[in-house]
Amino acid sequence: MKLYNSYTQMIEELKPIEEGKVSMYVCGPTVYNYPHIGNVRQIIVFDTLKKTLEAQGMDVLYASNYTDVDDKIINTAIEKGVSEQEITTQFIEAYDQTRADLNADQPDVAPKVTETMDAIIRKGAAYQVDGDVYYRVDSNSLYGELSHQKVEDLMVGARIDENTKKENPLDFTLWKATDRGIQWDSPWSKGRPGWHTECVVMINDVFQKPLIDIHGGGLDLKFPHHENEIAQCESLHHTRLANMWVHNGMINIDGIKMSKSLGNVWWAKDLIAMYGGNVIRWVMISTHYRAPLNLNEKAFESAQKELAKIENAYRQGQVKVQIANEEEEPKELDQTLWNPFIEALNDDLNTPNAITALLECVKKINQLQRQKEIDVKALNDALFTLEKMLTVLGIKLPTIHLSQEDKELYRLWRNAVQEKDFEHADLYRARLQEQGIL
Fold first, then answer.
1. Which of 226, 233, 313, 437 has the most CB within a 10 Å radius?
2. Are 190 and 179 in contact (CB under 8 A)?
3. Which helix (DSSP H) or strand (DSSP E) does residue 12 occupy?
4. Residue 96's Cα: distance from chain center in Å?
5. Angle at which helices 268-275 and 277-285 pack, to 10 degrees?
6. Could you give the 3-state DSSP secondary structure of residue 254?
7. pLDDT tens, position by position, for the chain (438 residues)?
């Protein structure tokens, strides 16, 4: 499989550190509110990547954290008059539910910051002032290697917290002294870790090694968050933390960047209630993961229509196979259909091209069904291939299991149609439709 590596700015072959196994970490959310559609894109992109690798026999250890220590969480807890833990528990459950609604696997490991409180400080790479600990960017000559910017350029126009305690405005917090919210004792002060510190520690804890195969996240995390993660890991372990850095593009709403300040944030739970997980997922994978994704009502309506056609072909194909076979026949992948699909995904997770290959599979299913003498084996294999494709893309369609009564009713309907007995044909059709067979 080949992926675009943000670190090298090249499409490279994925070469796992351990043969047959892939270690992947994706930066998770700060849990103080419900997931929005931007969070959803990241969930779907990396879930699809995991499913693609697993479909080819790879053993994937997928970790994604929950940041459950943050000023936003503390402020929300104070505003609502509850504990930080009540806030984080509520929204972690909301994220888990959103994943399930989107047909995404839960991460194999989902560490929380509050459960991973090892302190990080390095001789010469960090300094402390009044109980705060900062990373000294000047100590790392490679700083800026992920965002491909020079330190002097980063000083201009970058979003940097105003803090007169820092030696350099780019220096970032490893440990923050505070008397607000949840706190821990440390050699420097009572406080909590800095945001950029958390992921490095959790990666080391989960994978028990300083270098993993894939580190992922949204493009907005590339700088400064991922840049700062690399800096810490280079100072501590002399590695860049991950061999491949994979970033998904951002989301626009009707051509305008989604932003809380603009008030155009779309919440995942609302869209799921309106359209369902399949539709949202289809919209997300219809655009390449690295490209900006523009969302509007038309995109969701188009996805609904396309999925309805796929479901219709799948449902009718299942019925035809089961009507023709009293006993279920063995199924095999149709390699002429499957190979273009998996090759597209292996080409930097090109889901639009994979969808094109899937639609070719649907086209063949429809063609096979229209034949006077149906090739049941070919149809069964095409249906099985479609099922595998849908599984990789995270689309769940209902399967049909016809009883003997269902099969007899179907035959009665077909006979009535052939004999032009439209009164009975309509009656049988209505009953079949009620049972979801037609």
1. 226
2. yes
3. strand 10-13
4. 12
5. 110
6. coil
7. 999 999 999 999 999 999 999 999 999 999 999 999 999 999 999 999 999 999 999 999 999 999 998 889 999 999 999 999 999 999 999 999 999 999 999 999 999 887 765 434 444 578 989 999 899 988 888 899 999 988 777 765 444 455 578 888 889 988 889 988 888 888 888 988 887 878 888 898 899 998 999 999 999 999 989 999 999 888 888 899 999 999 999 999 999 988 888 888 999 999 999 999 999 999 999 999 999 999 999 999 999 999 999 999 999 999 999 988 766 678 899 999 999 999 999 999 999 999 999 999 999 999 999 998 889 999 999 999 999 999 999 999 999 889 899 989 988 998 999 999 998 989 989 998 888 888
- Decide: residue 25, CB within 10 A, 0-12 exposed, 13-18 middle, 19+ buried: buried
Instruction: For residue 167, give every residue at least 6 positions away whose Cβ sits within 8 Å of its Cβ, in sequence order, or none.
Output: 127, 134, 136, 138
Q: Which amino acid is at 246?
A: V
Question: What b-and-e string marks burial along 82-94, b requiring 16 or more CB atoms within 10 Å of the CB?
Answer: eebeebbebbbeb
| Gap between the Cα atoms of 382 and 136, Å rounded | 58
CA 126 and chain centroid, separation? 34
Q: Give the residue carrying structure tokens 């002097």.
A: 152
Tokens of 371: 């034949």
The answer to whether 65 and 198 are in contact (CB under 8 A) is yes
CA–CA distance from 390 to each of 60, 69, 359, 366 (Å)? 19, 37, 11, 17
> 61: which DSSP letter?
E
Amino acid at 89: T
DSSP class of 107? P
pTM reported for the whole predicted model: 0.91
Residue 316: exposure state from Cβ atoms within 10 A (0-12, 13-18, ≥19): middle
Q: How far is CA 208 from the centre of its chain?
A: 24
Cα separation values, 85 from 111, 201, 238, 409, 410, Å: 15, 21, 35, 56, 56
Which residues, 6+ apart, have CB-to-CB distance to 132 below 8 Å? Answer: 165, 173, 175, 176, 177, 188, 189, 191
Amino acid at 368: L
